[in-house]
Fold each of these.
Amino acid sequence: MEVSGTVASARAGDRRAVARLLTAVENRAPEGPEIAAATKGGDAVIVGVTGSPGVGKSTLVSALIGAWRAQGRRVAVLAVDPSSPFSGGALLGDRVRMADHALDRDVYIRSVATRGHLGGLAAGTGAAVRLLEGLGFDAVIVETVGVGQAEVEIAGLADTTLLLLAPGMGDAIQAVKAGVVEIADLYVVNKADRPGADAAVRDIRAMMSLVRRGPGEWRQPIVKTVAHQGEGLDELVAGIAKHREWLAGSDRLAARRRDRAAAEIRAVVETELRRRYEVTDELAEHVAAGEIDVAEAARTVLENGA
Amino acid sequence: MEVSGTVASARAGDRRAVARLLTAVENRAPEGPEIAAATKGGDAVIVGVTGSPGVGKSTLVSALIGAWRAQGRRVAVLAVDPSSPFSGGALLGDRVRMADHALDRDVYIRSVATRGHLGGLAAGTGAAVRLLEGLGFDAVIVETVGVGQAEVEIAGLADTTLLLLAPGMGDAIQAVKAGVVEIADLYVVNKADRPGADAAVRDIRAMMSLVRRGPGEWRQPIVKTVAHQGEGLDELVAGIAKHREWLAGSDRLAARRRDRAAAEIRAVVETELRRRYEVTDELAEHVAAGEIDVAEAARTVLENGA
């Protein structure tokens, strides 16, 4: 690939050029360092969007794209399929809504597969996010479904993480997802025209009251939206901007991004080290049977590693 | 420490001997391998008990001890404080209840601190569980409070994990904990004499219906208990036994224990490797700034590691 020409095309809105660069970065192609160098910098707001299937994530993402486009901003979306046993990997089920933006050269949407191992998502997707920022997108949305680990990784990737809920799906079922309550920067109660929206807001407030927060810490706003009608979008966009301001105001943004990069490096390093320092089934069986202790087994692994 | 004498005393019900051995194992004392060798084998049922503060875990654990003692079984409890920001580390708040068993030489109860890093819990506590089993305890209970990671680790330690819920605490708040829904082998709706118990059971069923299960897979029973009155305890004990039978019936038990041992070894190995292969802030900042890519940074770490 001729990197500088492809980068120039991508910046000018050529989606196939964007796609080629993303593929190279995700596959850790030899051009990786050259692409990184040609696309450094940028100033995007990076927003993670997560929540159970059925809460209307794709509709909200589409509405968010619309709101930002109305402000003249270029928007990219990475839709991550975490292959969760819960979600069954249903991804952007109503991709149709995205068709609203199909002809807009300043919108780029792409599915990203997870690598099936911890850290895989962070490693590949983190580089993709940085690339999109470097290509001049003003907002990068990382959308995911699933439970637990995938969402925590998303939070690691994003500056601002939105947790979507919807009323009328059964409080408990919704809140299963609220295991990710720790990582949300904004709560969005979507489908707020349905009965139960206020109850959902109350439940979130109740959950929030369980968390201790020091002075100066971020207090997550709760935004009610009806995404398919655009209701609440202004408030949501303002909330995202406000969180971004809060992050930038005190080196938190730089620290988040540095920590994110460190996590990505660590993921690659640990994948390699796990290959070099293998814990065999045989060794584990000896420990399980009490024939040797964990420390001794660990020494064996470290000595045999290369 | 004179290992064989201490082990003999511990087997005879000397709690101070049990405590000395546990301390040695947790601290990875030089006697570790000798202790492991002197205490291998055993046949305990290992039960994890988890759930939000206030659901009555300690009361239930106490009732479970009573039920097993009535069957003549020796019971040990490890109470883990995950130092969760959510729980504030409140641990066995009503330790008083445990006083029921204070004079019983066949009951051993101990608090275990987490090590403040991922894997620390698994490494130290796994060895402690194996030791207690090897000392002739017929049941080992690992109790924890907290959200997320700690509970997932507990599930890794236990053969059978109980997730406790209680009615009337606000469905959503309870179910925050249900982020751990994936790791529960039995659901226990405690305080089932309170209003809302049936609704809680319904909510759990609704959550369960979201999970696909193949043929032959375990279908989690939901047991209603009023622990302080001993109600539902027979059913709970039977449910635990049934799960254990299911595990043992098809090499699943051996596989769980082997995987657990492998995770413990890996935790120790990775702690050491993280020390040897350090990802510096400086390197992470270069990646965050787009000056080098992740692969290059990872290579640097791997080359500089020792």
Amino acid sequence: MKKNMSGCSVEESMRLLGGRWRLLLVSYLLEGPKRFNDLRRNMPGISQRMLTLDLRALEEADLIKRTVYPTSPIKVEYELTEDGKRLVPIVEIMKDFGLWLKARVKNGEG
Amino acid sequence: MKKNMSGCSVEESMRLLGGRWRLLLVSYLLEGPKRFNDLRRNMPGISQRMLTLDLRALEEADLIKRTVYPTSPIKVEYELTEDGKRLVPIVEIMKDFGLWLKARVKNGEG
């Protein structure tokens, strides 16, 4: 991960949660465990490689857990960890702000 | 700005606020109006070009206001708009989460 240059806590968060997809990904995992292809379907704009990298970064931060089931074909599921549930209020606040942004555009102010 | 692919409000927010620097930039503007070079000093990791682009994106979204004072040399200041103040709780929650992340690393869990 990129180095935190400012030492600031906001930067620390954004190094992990910034980018376009990570919090969106977390918002889908709030619904429960998901398989890789479920997530791809939820996020048509993300490439397979980027989704893999984003999942791995969140996994390394212990915010999501990856479980491999030894079925055939192998089933891999992702879910939020207890620490990952700390992201719930962050997802909520981003959802509210996004709704406000969209409403503003609709009202012709944006 | 990139297109919102999922229609989701979280994505709508992250298209605007995602990335490493924008919320950090907003956090410095919470202290009051700042000049371009003040912001550069606060964020040693950001390039001049990226800072310009980030400021412009937030200005186009009416979250910050750019004021040019016709002094010599010209003075340019950036400040949060009323709409931009909607970002205060977002910056706060990111700050709290960043503090938690840093404390976790210190405690050897991360």
